[in-house]
Amino acid sequence: MEKQQEEVILLDYWASMFGMRVRIALAEKGIPYEYSEQDLRNKSQLLLDMNPVHKKIPILIHKGKPICESSIIVEYIDEVWNDKAPLFPSDSYAKASARFWANFIDTKLYQIGRNLCTLKGEEHEASKNEFIDCLKLLEGELGDKPYFGGDNFGYLDVSLIPFYSWFQAYETYGKIDFEQECPKLMNWAKRCIKNKESVSNTLPDMQEILAFVRRMRKIFGIDD
């Protein structure tokens, strides 16, 4: 077991919600690792060598071998360090369902959230309505359970909770009141932060994310 925990490096960027997933999963498992903050506007040779296909973070390097894409990394972590805090349910259907919703978050929710922070006009208004619709679908999947994994914090919780750190930015630029629109989801997020140190110690302050988004909007000419 000690050998498995050697030589774990995470190439990441502090504001990346995908990187936050990996950091939460590592914390849940109690895995020590070396954190390497990356400059995404001047990518390191290590990043380019470890992910030559997409050239993106996060990248987990375990025993010199790279694992890329956050959902794949979290699944890898759960399989390799399988003696503590399992993230996936043992039931095959529940596991497939968790993967389905995580893919929904990656392919649908992320892009719409990005649109909220970068678009204006009719496209922006459409993204606002679509974003709320997506969150309501996730609220329906959560139901009255404490966590998406039932009584246990799991893979789908890990996949979604980093978005919470961006909610103030989404509220600011999307003009959305999440407490009013998605009260169950907000209670779930607060429960994760209250009960899971892996979450509370990982998620950056919402104000820091909002300031980051403001800087990016100026850099890309969205705001003066």
Describe the structure.
The protein has 224 residues and is an alpha+beta fold. The protein contains eleven helices and four strands. The chain has two domains: 8-80, Glutaredoxin (3-Layer(aba) Sandwich), CATH 3.40.30; 92-219, Up-down Bundle (Glutathione S-transferase Yfyf (Class Pi), Chain A, domain 2). Helix content is 57%, strand content 8%. Helix 7 crosses helix 11. The N and C termini lie far apart (53 Å).
Give the CATH topology of the largest domain. Glutathione S-transferase Yfyf (Class Pi), Chain A, domain 2
Termini distance? 53 Å
Number of domains in the coordinates? 2
Largest sheet: 4 strands, mixed
Order of helices and strands: EHEHEEHHHHHHHHH
Q: How does the overall form come out from the CA principal axes?
A: globular
Structural class from helices and strands? alpha+beta
Give the count of helical stretches: 11
CATH class of the largest domain: Mainly Alpha
Mean pLDDT: 94
> What is the CATH-assigned architecture of the largest domain?
Up-down Bundle
How are strands sequenced across the largest beta sheet? 2-1-3-4
